[in-house]
Design goal:
Length: about 210
């Protein structure tokens, strides 16, 4: 399961520049309470995804499917494939955001942070796919915690330089995270094995017995 946590953390860390571009103004305006709402929403979403994964048949294909979802999210994030970001969810987010702005500051800040978890972010949806593969509420929450903590450094120290970096390095970020996803796919498919405990693609299959 280590590769799931590492993939989620790398996705958050490498994509954090993009997070600054999308959420930077909210972070500066709302402060720490915005992070509380966002991380809390991530943990809840991860727990729900992990618990929901228990409904899927167990087997190596579950982890493989989650890695495929992450790869697809990276391709979407990098602009290699295109999909509409509009629709009912976006309209609901706009309406809810306007309502929250009229509430007292602490409630508004936490609420806006929670809404950030629902913004159209391909890497977040990819992290949810990884959480599903844990097949447990606790494991799913831990995966999303890794993703959230990966995004924190850039969001906490959000600046104009990082926003420019998010625009210029978008594809490089996607390719870096894509590599992690492809490595996870190869590991889950049993075609890649790296020695050492805790390695990103370390296999845990028992050795085959001789004749």
């Amino acid at each position: 399961m280590n590769e799931l946590f590492l993939a989620a953390f790398v996705a958050g860390l490498m994509g954090s520049g993009h997070c600054v571009g999308m959420c930077g103004p909210f972070v500066v305006a709302a402060g720490p309470l915005w992070h509380v709402g966002r991380v809390g929403a991530y943990l809840i979403a991860g727990a729900v995804a992990g618990f929901g994964g228990r409904a899927l048949p167990s087997g190596p294909w579950t982890g493989l499917l989650s890695a495929v979802v992450l790869v697809g999210a990276c391709l979407r994030f990098g602009g290699f494939i295109h999909a509409s970001e509009g629709g009912p969810l976006s309209r609901w987010l706009l309406r809810t955001g306007r309502t929250l702005r009229g509430l007292p500051e602490p409630i508004a800040a936490v609420g806006m942070g929670s809404l950030a978890a629902l913004l159209p972010c391909g890497l977040f949806w990819g992290a949810l796919g990884l959480a599903t593969a844990t097949r447990s509420a606790l494991g799913g929450a831990e995966v999303l915690a890794a993703f959230a903590f990966g995004t924190l450094p850039a969001l906490i120290f959000a600046a104009a330089l990082l926003r420019r970096l998010a625009q210029r390095a978008r594809r490089a970020v996607a390719l870096a995270t894509l590599l992690v996803g492809l490595c996870a796919i190869a590991h889950r498919a049993g075609v890649l094995s790296l020695p050492g405990d805790g390695a990103i693609c370390d296999t845990a299959h028992p050795p085959s017995e001789g004749p």
